[in-house]
Amino acid sequence: MAELNFKFAYIWPETIFFLLIIYLFILTCVSRKNPALAAGGALVVVPAGGILAILCAFNSFYLEADMFFGSYRIDGLSQFFKILICLGFVVAALNSFRQPTLSVEKRVEYFLFLTLSAWGLVILSSGAELVTIYLALELSSYSLYVLIPVRAKSKAAAEAGLKYILFGAAATAMALYGLSWIIASQETTYIAKLAGADWSLAGNPLAVMGLTLFLGGLFFKLALFPFHFWCPDVYQGASNETAAFVATLPKLGAIIVLIRLATFLKPDLEITGILALLAAVSVTYGNFCALAQKDLKRMLGFSSVAHAGYILCGLVAGTAEGLAAAAFYAMAYLLMNLLCFWVISRISQDGRNLTYDDLNGLSRRSPILAMCLAAGAFSLVSLPPTVGFIGKLWLITSLWGHGYDWLVIVVCVNSAIAIFYYLSLVRHAYTEDPIGPPVPEGSPEGTLTGPIALTDASAYSHAGALFLGILVVLLGVIPGPVYNVALNAARALLP
After folding, report:
1. Do 237 and 151 form a contact (C-beta atoms < 8 A)?
2. Do the beta carbons of residue 351 and residue 243 sit within 8 Å?
3. Does the pLDDT value for residue 446 go beyond 50?
């Protein structure tokens, strides 16, 4: 019989985030008198709390426990994703420090909702029961409904927030409807029990339809075709710093749930074939749409649609290697997107959206930012020796020979297509001259004007870019230890 089995030692990361939320809530009550001081207090404590949560997750990495009557699972996979979520949270918080479109009076509230969303994702990492997963997913989503429209009275941001709410409500309704079908057909919501159930269309059509609808709610978070329509508009409308958070951390929450649910999907099941088809369409559609974009965040939005398809390939394989490859690629996706958004935020010091032309001459006015942007672009296009290359290689390897070799060909062809728009980032940064007003007479030859004044070339800017850039390259050169951790966690999930 399942037991409560509650121990604080198992949930220190969740506890730290909860204490951060209490601290920030109290800070909002006193921030009116001195908003600058309160914002400074939030900036110091929030990243420190995130780093402490990472250390606690590392410390409990090899714990195995079922809590709250089996609805909450502490294992290698949950701790792996908690570390990634906490790392992304720290980078996103530091990236928001100099957010130009956010007034000082709103910064404490901004960090409060940022922390609330990350807390929901941390809880989601250990969810082992569908109702628990749904509640954690909604906890992380509600905070984003508030964060996305916050952009200095921008109409585009308000429109983006409205779209995210409407699409989110539709996805939530669909997931709940599917959950009711699963409960009616399988009579349980525990993933461990669902793993032994019949998921064939002939044997249990109601369960298959219910699972398909429930997965739709997760595909909305992942921005997988055809649940992607909100993604480019939200990235474009939200501030650069908020887009960096929305583009990365919620995806991790969706991926870990999909990995847990994929443990009872077999290659010969009808629903697995549906997932393979969605992966192929998402990869192709996302890449072709990204080719036509000029706005960098909109391009990254369609790019994330393609990457959602790549990650789904590991789940379609239905093996421990496939699940481990999906988890590893989730880490790669987090790092290379945070790197690109960090550089974008450092270039756009007035908070506007950037186009490719805004990158012109970046290598001359900030060589370090240009080099780190190149590392992020190379990783996104999966060129060695970056983490994106080795992650996609493992995805393809895990998929080959399991009945979906055609999907491997689709992934390889689309990876070649992506070269055209990802490497445009590098071309503009290194080979194009900046566009700006005419150079005044008498100015030295080679004087640059225009976007130069926007670029933050401070030590703070360079330190963040170098940290992420080094991780992107280092984990591409030495990926084995991290992949082995993900592989062991995946093997523990499978029967």
Report:
1. yes
2. no
3. no
